[in-house]
Amino acid sequence: MRPVRIVTLALATTALALPLAAIPATADPGSDHQAAPHSNAKFDRLRHAAPEGFFVGTAVAGGGHHLEQDYPDPFTYDKEYRKILSRQFSSVSPENQMKWDFIHPERDRYRFDEADAIVDFAERHGQVVRGHTLLWHSQNPAWLEQGDFTDEELRAILREHIETVVGRYAGRIQQWDVANEIFDDAGNLRTEQNIWIRELGPGIVADAFRWAHEADPEAKLFFNDYNVEGRNAKSNAYYELVQDLLAEGVPVHGFSAQGHLSTRWGFPGDLEQNLRRFDALGLETAITELDVRMDLPESGVPTEAQLEQQADYYDQALSACLAVANCNSFTIWGFTDKYSWVPVFFQGQGSATVMTEDFVRKPAFFALQSTLKDARNG
Ligand code: G3I
Question: Rounded to two decimals, what is the model's pTM?
Answer without folding.
Answer: 0.91
